[in-house]
Amino acid sequence: MQLATVPRLPSHADIRSAEILASARLAFVEKGFDGASMQDLARVSGMSVGNFYRYFPSKAAIIQAMILRDAAEMQHDFAAIITSSQPLMMLRQVIRGRVNDESCAKDSDLWAEIEAASRHSPEIAAASDTMQAQVLAHFIAVFAAETGLTIAEANRRFSAPAAYVFVLIKAASCLSCAPPLDQAAVRTMILRSIDLALDEVAAFTAPPELTMSSDLTEPKDPTCA
Amino acid sequence: MQLATVPRLPSHADIRSAEILASARLAFVEKGFDGASMQDLARVSGMSVGNFYRYFPSKAAIIQAMILRDAAEMQHDFAAIITSSQPLMMLRQVIRGRVNDESCAKDSDLWAEIEAASRHSPEIAAASDTMQAQVLAHFIAVFAAETGLTIAEANRRFSAPAAYVFVLIKAASCLSCAPPLDQAAVRTMILRSIDLALDEVAAFTAPPELTMSSDLTEPKDPTCA
DNA sequence: CATAAAAGAATGAACGTTCATTCTCAGCCG
DNA sequence: CGGCTGAGAATGAACGTTCATTCTTTTATG
């Protein structure tokens, strides 16, 4: 992410912007995109509203930057996955970690907000779509590495399960709002569905007559318990 | 909503309120809860803002009423399901109809909005939770009818798959926003997962030693193709 | 080193707009 | 007339954004 052409090191303003994004995220989680005013954002960032505009020209720009920064972070995560020795297995682990609430509870509110805002703001929708396309592309890359197919071929064959897994992860992330639900049980069932979908992809590795579909019903999860 | 004790027939004001809810829904879909102003709502309802307040005391009240009216409508749908000869099969059909985009595209934006608003408004969260609890209770009722268990027992055994199915339906409903996704394929996969979960419930009909878990991997969907 | 000049960072009051809500008043039916 | 329904202007608060201004740091100069 750092660079393609110019190896610039982060300036003071860049650091400040990152800090602003981090604290603005908290305000957005608490009050929503519309609920959090610019004065709120400036206050939680520990600066005046006037100065705030030196870093971001508008409210929409903050949201956009926040989404794109998340996308960049995810690029980083996926880089670790794709370069590992067993990409698909590592992908499973990362998904498992993401779905289990600790880390994603923070993001859950934000995702709901982004989902809703995307319907009315083309800018936010564009940022969100960019992120989604990146995730799907990374899924496809992992699937291609796992099966030995080319990216193009993997894309043709596996775009549906990739999207399916993506949707399931999102569904699991948005779970924390409903008190009467047995969240842990639902999470487990969702993870099982994801594992099954990934098993189907993995089963494509060898020539069709050599696929061992027997362990299809046995998700290998040493980390789950 | 109407009442339990007095069978009142809808007054003029009730009719007007219903019309307002219908047109307000359109405005909310287009602009979002925060984006649509009271002036907007009054205008699309064909009346002045002052008069508008004679029917709903606040914006939150409109949203709340809208959700509760949807919940009441759904109660009606479920009444048809539970009284049919094969409740579970009819439930499958209704779910299938709901997930296939025609009818739910309208609701999709609204659901995203409600999800987000629930995080910040306790009133909306309460209405949303009420609706969700009702749906789950109806699922359980269908499961109980199908398996012959008591409601209490069905609730103990099947609350997890009920919640799971609910979450999947919601996930499928919120699908329309993402252009690069192959929506039809994902919808099919989600429906397959739902069918599998319902198959597991249905498999509980007979005594435990007679359950045939073999057809678990074979979803019977003549309507899918 | 001292100091003046320039640049950058930060402030909070002020602007115009929009919002949810309230108020005042006009018509209408008995 | 009196009690409704309805209209739309009025209100004050809050919003996103801008602005003139003040602090702080850096740089140049003697």
What is the helix content of chain A?
55-70%
Oligomer state of the chains in this structure: homodimer
Q: Which structural category fits the helices and strands of chain A? A: mainly alpha
| Low-confidence residue ranges of chain A | 1-6, 209-225
Question: How many helical stretches of chain A?
Answer: 9
Distance between the termini of chain A: 35 Å
Give an overview of the whole structure.
The structure is a homodimer of 225-residue chains. The first copy, chain A, is mostly helical. Helix content of chain A is 69%, strand content 0%. In chain A, helix 1 (12-31) crosses helix 6 and helix 8 runs antiparallel to helix 9. The first copy, chain A, is globular and about 55 Å long. In chain A, 33% of the residues are buried. The interface between A and B is large, with 49 and 47 residues. The structure holds a DNA duplex (30 and 30 nucleotides).
Q: Can you summarize this structure?
A:
Two copies of one chain form a homodimer. Chain A is mainly alpha-helical.
